[in-house]
Amino acid sequence: MLESITLKNFRTHKKIKVDFDSKVTSIIGPSYKGKSTILRAVKWVTQNQPSGNSMLRWTASKVMVKILIDGHTIIRKMGSGINLYKLDNQKFKAFKTSVPEPISQIINMSSINFNKNQHDVPFWFSESAGEVSRQLNSIVNLGVIDSTLSNIASTLRDNRSEIGVCTNRLEEFKKQRNELSYIKELNENLESVEILEKQHNIDSAGLARFNYLLEGIQIYQLDTKLRKEQSQCGNLAIQKAQAHSQIINRLVNLEKLISNHQELQIEIDGRPPTLNPVELAYQKYKKEAEQRQGMETIISKTKDAEEEMKTFKYGLQQAQKEFKIQTGNRCPICGKKM
User: Fold this and answer.
1) How many structural domains are present in the chain?
2) Full-prediction pTM beyond 0.70?
């Protein structure tokens, strides 16, 4: 928006400043006081027209017009070898009737914004329709409006078509929703089944635990029976060991008798033999030999019993370890530590 304009040595004005209203500005005064000159100054800056020195005050050598527009300061100077534009603090050279592009973009005005003469007929009222259309197109670009309206109409048709498709799809979805209304009941049934399944899993876990404990009890009973049998075998082994000890004692006595027999045999060999002592000694030796053979048989059986005892002890130790692993030092029935 044009905010103000300042003229120096421009035609009849030596120096003047006009502030423009944000809506409408009217310049009122007697004739030939420079009202139209102010508009020509605006046109000279914004259009670089007219060319030449016709706008220079007859007593001055330089002319300057400054406008404030949209927060920018634009200055147009001419005279004494000077012909330039100035945008804020940036200078541009002026050529013929052209305006520097950065300044033209800020001003955004054309010749159509200015009336030809203050005595001309009202703007566009006496122009032909084609001329009014041409001038209007130069301002608002009617081609863009036509293409925009065409695009809007095309978009509107597409949107209407899409709305129709969406409406049909909505009706289909509503129909499908009605057809699938039984799914809600199925979902409720599924939730009930899931609750029953959870309860079944809990019951199955309890049953598995009960079976595990039952197996533990059965194993414990078998181990108890086995320990009882092993204990009986141990008692039997102890009895055999005691018998073995007795046999060992008898064997020692037998060895003493054999030693005595050998001494007697030496004495017999040293004198003439007699039949009666020999027969008695033979009978005694024969009896002792039978006793010795019986003792050796008992010793062999005793050694076999000792080996069986070792085997039973090893089996008992393994069974005790397995029992501890299975029960964890706790009673499988009451759960207390043993």
Assistant:
1) 2
2) no
